[in-house]
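Posting this for the archive.
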Amino acid sequence: MKKRVKLTFPKRSVHMPITYRLAKDFNVAANIIRAQVAPNQVGKLVVELSGDIDQLNDAIDWLEIQGIKVSLASREILIDEDVCVHCGLCTGVCPTTALSLDPQTFQLTFNRSRCILCEQCIPTCPVQAISTNL
């Protein structure tokens, strides 16, 4: 099973080897999608956790005991089809090819399951057709 979660670390927990502990202690893989972590600051991490449902739940419980706030990551990239001019600029910055131009129609296509929410496409769009739902 997979769960995409946002972890918010208090200043005192930023130094903890979280992904190591998740793998070693709970057999849970953590794919880091986005990270904002710096010493002596609140840290934020968006990760996709995968493993057995019971192990995932145990790992999330452990994170909360450590003082790490866990919330489901529900943010998504949105594309306004009425505004998009299908220029393809966003496809050049998308690291996962979630955004691509159809070779037949030259229309923008969005593969949501490949998107890692890096948001590099948002400032690249010249007509501001790309945004997030939060």
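The helical segments are 18-26, 53-65, 89-93, 121-124. The CA atoms of residues 49 and 80 lie 30 Å apart.
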